[in-house]
């Protein structure tokens, strides 16, 4: 948000310095006052001191200094001096929540001022009007101010007036006009050396990018602004508020909440304006709501609302009330009283021109539908569905959701499906502005309800083809295009290398300082990735084609598992015929998956060796239960064919080979049918390079890799200190087959830091994403290398999933820890089959026959999954 300041002065340029470098301005003001100056010079020094204190958050002290400055200005007999101090005092009181007194001071300042000074006073009055949410009145003041200041050649104050006007235009939805004003302000601040305000202009350019849906650019602008604020020694709460909004739009609600908690704690400890305290609590409430903590959201929104009400800030107060109402809905409240309050809040938001009005109408429509109030629902959802052509993609998607719900209530199936498609198209546009896999995956969560509406319709019609099409429409879309990250990003490479070194040293000897450095480097790597700009809209994956899928499958059977309202359905595609089979509750399937994974982990640690007493169901019994919970009657359609399994993200960590119906047959597991089609169309590289990698601390892996080196005499072998990240990445790029025997670590807290342990430290997903092309086939004979974290609507983030958009046609990885010695024979048999020309899934199915007999070896075989095609 913009700031208000003092006028140009005669005492060593103190007033401009106060807004540019407040600490330096205070020191200079002290020097001036120590000389016992004339009243007019002392007034300027106290005014500069007061402005500096305000910038640093000490409002009570700032007001004291400004009252002293006003008294000295009155003594000087200079009306223009008195007007300037009155304006600064009025703006400061307005920011402190004392808007009535502040506006009275500013009105008096307007009466006393003339010419360019009037322009400067009007800017500060506009600041208070902006705080109060009286945007139109503020725009009237700024229009007059800009005209006067431009005529007088006052560049600093023209820049400030344009900064304010840009901020108001942005609040009213005029992103183009806002950006034009901010761009002019930025140039003027740079020309006049206003360092603090230049940082603020960069921050506001970030707000424009955010409003347009360009989150990577917004994050870059805000980062730069933060560095510039820090350089002048200012902690600026507006920056935390803006970052909160951008992080929420990116789906990073936990981080947004942490950002606000830190900002509030800092303000409580160091002091700050009452107006800003309310805005911080409001932002914290929105973050808590997005993070799924309705009670915290209600408490924080109530604190904000009470502050805003005391400050007579209706625009903010109504918005806070709306967050409280949304939190009550999220907590499960329904009924007529809540509907009345939400409808009233929506009308007030409309009158105030607040952007939250559409979301309020959408919530009112939902409540009316739940209460059987069809006429009210129709009216509210019609208002929720209104948007202009310039509306950002996320807001357009929300508007299309309103249209879809309205059409569904009217039994207008065609209209509902059209709205669902248009809403998902808008989110495609939003998703593709981002280069980072993580942000693309999180963005899909916004479209879950649109996809579910269409899926329910397909179930009602009992139309398996339509169910398949809509199931694919919003599944694993983040893997449709590779992440946008230049492979020659030197800073990213340097940070990743430093991170490997720190983690390697931490593994050798725990050290709190090294742990702190690890966290810092991980943040730097992730921040850099999140700011990657997306590609052109035309790079979006083409629409899913069922006929192309049928042609490509041939004799193979595809089973796509789709969850609708907590029930799992299997859509089977075989010989051109598409059938649907209701399997059962998703919760039951999840329980069987965990039971199976627990037993396989138990066996991996040697607890199932011969002679030990086995407790609980056998693997065979667990496999039967798992098959029933996952496939149900769909198993009857499989025959003896090869199978492509497409599970929802929540079931990705499933040991498919444990099911009797899938054991020892070729099974490819993919996050979407579209992903399988893309992987199948990949062609192997002309250069049949084989790369074998052995990580440290893997005794069984050494024999495995050395035996494989005998099978591939021309292979590149990286072991014994040569398996370093840069060497491994260089050799993996575009290889035909890569086999990595290394300890793996899955990071559920931050899945893109999941890694393989090499000689110089962990090779993370961020490292793999620097490849121009992943190996055509990749075998990861290490623990948990096939795990991924479900995020967004139906997306996966993890080590193996990251290789799919980078060009890997097939990946073999484990979904539970494996016993390394028991794995080695399986890997040797796998490569024998690959050398015979078999596909990865077929080669793995044949290799599993080597695992019969010993339960630990059987468990190792059942723990691997062939991903891709």
From TrEMBL:
Signal peptide: none annotated. Transmembrane segments: none annotated. It comes from the Bacteria. Residues 631-855 form the CHAT domain. This is CHAT domain-containing protein.
């Amino acid at each position: 948000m913009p700031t208000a300041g003092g006028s140009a002065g005669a005492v060593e340029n103190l007033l401009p310095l106060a807004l540019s470098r407040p600490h330096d301005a205070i020191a200079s003001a002290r020097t001036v006052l120590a000389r016992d100056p004339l009243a007019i010079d002392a007034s300027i020094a106290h005014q500069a001191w007061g402005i500096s204190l305000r910038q640093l958050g000490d409002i009570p002290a700032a007001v004291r200094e400004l009252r002293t400055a006003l008294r000295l200005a009155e003594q000087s007999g200079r009306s223009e001096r008195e007007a300037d101090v009155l304006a600064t005092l009025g703006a400061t009181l307005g920011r402190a929540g004392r808007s009535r007194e502040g506006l009275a001071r500013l009105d008096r300042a307007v009466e006393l001022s003339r010419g360019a000074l009037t322009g400067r006073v009007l800017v500060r009055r506009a600041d208070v009007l902006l705080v109060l949410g009286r945007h139109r009145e503020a725009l009237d003041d700024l229009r007059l101010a800009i005209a006067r200041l431009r005529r007088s050649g006052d560049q600093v104050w023209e820049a400030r007036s344009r900064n304010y006007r840009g901020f108001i235009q942005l609040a009213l939805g005029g992103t183009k006009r806002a950006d034009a004003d901010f761009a002019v302000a930025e140039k003027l601040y740079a020309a006049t050396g206003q360092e603090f305000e230049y940082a603020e202009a960069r921050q506001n350019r970030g707000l424009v990018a955010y409003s347009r849906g360009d989150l990577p650019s917004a994050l870059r602008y805000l980062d730069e602004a933060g560095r510039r604020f820090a350089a002048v020694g200012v902690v600026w709460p507006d920056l935390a508020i803006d970052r909160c909004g951008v992080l929420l739009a990116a789906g990073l609600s936990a981080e947004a909440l942490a950002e606000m908690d830190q900002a509030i704690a800092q303000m409580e400890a160091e002091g700050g304006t009452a107006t800003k305290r309310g805005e911080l609590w409001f932002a914290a409430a929105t973050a808590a709501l997005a993070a799924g903590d309705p009670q915290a959201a209600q408490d924080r929104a109530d604190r904000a609302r009470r502050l805003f009400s005391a400050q007579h800030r209706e625009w903010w107060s109504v918005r806070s009330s709306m967050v409280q109402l949304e939190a009550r809905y999220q907590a499960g409240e329904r009924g007529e009283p809540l509907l009345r309050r939400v409808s009233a809040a929506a009308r007030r938001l409309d009158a105030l021109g607040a952007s939250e009005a559409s979301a309020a109408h959408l919530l009112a429509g939902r409540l009316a539908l739940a209460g059987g109030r069809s006429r009210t629902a129709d009216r509210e959802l019609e208002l929720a569905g209104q948007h202009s052509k310039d509306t950002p993609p996320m807001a357009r998607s929300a508007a299309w959701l309103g249209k879809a719900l309205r059409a569904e209530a009217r039994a207008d199936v065609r209209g509902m499906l059209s709205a669902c498609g248009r809403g998902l198209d808008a989110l495609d546009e939003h998703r593709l502005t981002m280069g980072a896999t993580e942000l693309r995956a999180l963005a899909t969560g916004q479209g879950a309800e649109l996809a579910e509406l269409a899926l329910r319709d397909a179930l009602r019609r009992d139309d398996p083809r339509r169910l398949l099409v809509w199931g694919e429409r919003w599944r694993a879309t983040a893997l449709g295009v590779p992440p946008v990250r230049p492979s020659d990003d030197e800073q990213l490479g340097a940070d990743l290398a430093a991170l490997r070194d720190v983690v390697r040293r931490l593994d050798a000897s725990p050290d709190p300082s090294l742990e702190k450095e690890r966290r810092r480097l991980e943040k730097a790597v992730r921040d850099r990735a999140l700011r990657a700009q997306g590609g052109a809209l035309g790079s979006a994956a083409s629409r899913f084609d069922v006929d192309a899928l049928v042609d490509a499958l041939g004799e193979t059977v595809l089973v796509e598992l789709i969850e609708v309202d907590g029930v799992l359905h299997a859509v089977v595609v075989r010989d051109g015929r598409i059938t649907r089979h209701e399997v059962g509750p998703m919760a039951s399937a999840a329980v069987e998956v965990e039971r199976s994974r627990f037993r396989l982990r138990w066996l991996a640690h040697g607890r199932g060796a011969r002679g030990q007493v086995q407790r609980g169901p056998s693997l065979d019994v667990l496999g039967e239960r798992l098959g029933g919970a996952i496939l149900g009657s769909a198993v009857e359609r499989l025959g003896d064919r090869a199978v492509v399994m497409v599970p929802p993200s929540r079931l990705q960590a499933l040991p498919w080979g444990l099911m009797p119906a899938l054991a020892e047959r070729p099974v490819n597991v993919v996050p979407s049918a579209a992903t399988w089609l893309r992987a199948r169309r990949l062609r192997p590289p002309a250069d049949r390079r084989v790369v074998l990698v052995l990580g440290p601390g893997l005794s069984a892996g050494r024999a495995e890799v050395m035996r494989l080196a005998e099978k591939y005499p021309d292979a590149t072998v990286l072991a014994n200190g040569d398996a370093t990240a840069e060497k491994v990445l260089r050799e993996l790029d575009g290889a035909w087959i890569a086999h990595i025997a290394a300890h793996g670590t899955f990071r559920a807290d931050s899945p893109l830091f999941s890694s393989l342990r090499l000689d110089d430290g962990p090779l993370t997903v961020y490292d793999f994403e620097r490849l121009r092309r992943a190996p055509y086939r990749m075998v990861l004979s290490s623990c948990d290398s096939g795990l991924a974290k479900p995020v967004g609507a139906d997306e996966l983030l993890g080590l193996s999933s990251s290789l799919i958009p980078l060009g890997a046609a097939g990946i073999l990885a484990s979904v539970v820890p494996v016993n390394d010695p028991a794995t080695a024979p399986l890997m040797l048999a796998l490569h024998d089959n690959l050398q015979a020309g078999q596909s990865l899934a077929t080669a793995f199915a044949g290799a599993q026959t080597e695992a019969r007999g010993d339960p630990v070896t059987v468990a190792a075989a059942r723990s691997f999954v062939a991903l891709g095609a």
